[in-house]
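Review box. Two proteins, two foldings.
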Amino acid sequence: MLVKTLDDVLNTPDHVTGDAFESRRILLARDRLGYSFHDTRVLAGSTQRLEYKNHIEANYCIEGQGEVEEVATGRTWPLRPGTMYVLDRHDAHIIRAETDLRLLCVFTPALTGEETHDADGSYSAST
């Protein structure tokens, strides 16, 4: 059995912050589960364009208000607690946070924790 807490991650290299986000990477590839699990905050007023070309990502909103836009169609969906969206076709998307959003995120294949966003908003394939 593997047991971790958010406190185990905070203020470690697995706690990554940027201008528009804070990613608390609770499970990573080194945990050998085939997926990674993240508790992510998207900061109020921010807009991020992302496209995970090498990963499938599922996101479940547990706090806040915002929206997600599918770049290919321009279609938008509101984000609020209880909303899930899945980037099952490596969809380019835009996240807009009206308030701080808190998303529980699952990536497959698992992220290593060393990734940084490329210019197009994606992560390179894990090795």
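Next protein.
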Amino acid sequence: MSEFRLAAGQSLLVASRGIFELHGLTRWVEQDGKWRGKTLARVNQLSSLTRHPTLPVVYGTSRVGMEGDIHAWRIEGDTAITLGEKSSEGAEPCHLVVDPSGRLLIVTNYTTSTLGLQRLAADGSFEGPIVQLKLSGGGPELERQDDAHPHQAFFIGATLVVIDLGADLIREFSLDLSKPGADALTQLRATAVPANTGPRHAVVLPDGCLAVSGELGSNLVVGRLGAPASSWANVRATRQTGPGKTRWSRNYPGDIQRALDGRHVYFANRSLDTISTFEVSGATPALVTEHDSQTQWPQHMLVTESHVLVAGWDSGAVKALPLANGVPTGVEHLFDCPGAGWLLLWD
């Protein structure tokens, strides 16, 4: 079982998710076989991270409840220089992405059902006000699907893809930065996934299909954008049938990541604290292994050529699962980081 090592010049940024006096943006490096961490910025409930496509700038979402914030930092070695901090103008922002040109930051305000659009200056800082695009919809689980609830945003080429947990939809938008405010985004299509999936995160497979984690359905769905929901493969996320171990008796899956070659996807079963590995190169996804992550509430994952890294929010630990032919073979403890909730490789 190979031990995880960073490449020369690399570090690991971790969102330490909790109250700002103790948590925030942290940077971890490996020296002489030991991991050492440093807090770069104190942040209240730092929940997700993303980086600028060309600049050494990282962005984050923070806060829970009815007020959210967004942050921008320029990373210089073991120092984070604050470029901006402001309200997301929505509740519980949980994901964000920068468009390929580096001129617009898009934020998913989960609770208030909006996409926040923040223009960026040439240095990556915030420029002008953040504007909102309201989404609408709903699904069969009224407590969680009372309205649209965007949970992830990413680009496929020039198209913005938004995973909408509340409406059981995957939305596609065109982006025209010559148009002002929310008019810069135009919805092109909304693809329904099987009802009550509650889609949370998705990855794009080599054949163009999407593999999507179902938070509400405890399922993995795989299909093509534009295809009817009935054509999507729909399989259980876990072999386990008993109650969860962390937070809830019900399994609430979270993150999904793909192997670099696209043959497998890795699926975090929060509550059960396991990582399922699916073979997705065939017609139907096949559950190959399911490993105890040895963390509590595995919130986020990061995949390298040799390992799957797992951030355990409740246990405050980061683990590494070594891979053999794309399949995890065990669990290695890397370091303890209170409230570890998001991982970003930095070089």
